[in-house]
Amino acid sequence: xxxxxxxxxxxxxxxxxxxxxxxxxxxxxxxxxxxxxxxxxxxxxxxxxxxxxxxxxxxxxxxxxxxxxxxxxxxxxxxxxxxxxxxxxxxxxxxxxxxxxxxxxxxxxxxxxxxxxxxxxxxxxxxxxxxxxxxxxxxxxxxxxxxxxxxxxxxxxxxxxxxxxxxxxxxxxxxxxxxxxxxxxxxxxxxxxxxxxxxxxxxxxxxxxxxxxxxxxxxxxxxxxxxxxxxxxxxxxxxxxxxxxxxx
Length: 248
What we know:
Layout: E1 11-13, E2 23-25, H1 34-37, E3 44-47, H2 72-80, E4 84-90, H3 101-116, E5 124-128, H4 151-160, E6 168-171, H5 174-183, E7 187-191, E8 208-210, H6 213-235
Helix pairs in contact: 2-6
């Protein structure tokens, strides 16, 4: 079922070129309201959830398991003044029957509240509940939203008129980085965590590498500043001579 976004914090199911696309949750404090939507163009920083914002406990199935990582709040606070902050997370625990979508929503509500209490804000949470090989119907399926597919990012871009060339992806797995690249974001940041595949640390798969979200946010803002400086420089470059009257 596809329904239009609302701003009440209720769950919204959208489609990515097919039925059963990613789950979308907009926290009550989300800036994705009419006044902000009118501002265009705009960028977003897409964040993986586990290992980036909260401790990766394997299958997180209850709010009581939420444990904010050090520097996560500071990192989001750095980003939120310049970008929309959007989580894009694979959660095959739903497909595996370890929790249902309502319980997953309760986890994201608790996460948003925990961050908000410390002055950090999420604008949207996109979740892929599918797995191609494991789990129960209708979640055991091939889909276009499970990273490394870029479906969650592309859906957010479509839903909220987010510009890929003004956006970034931060994650701790190769699938996060590839999803960002396939979605056409300006740059990606790989955060080293216990779950980061050792093989990708030795390949040029990510624009930057950082040790936590705060340092990743600093890299994003530095990249953004360079983009802005380059754009301003280009706008002030004198037009080139048309060649009229010149000699070959």
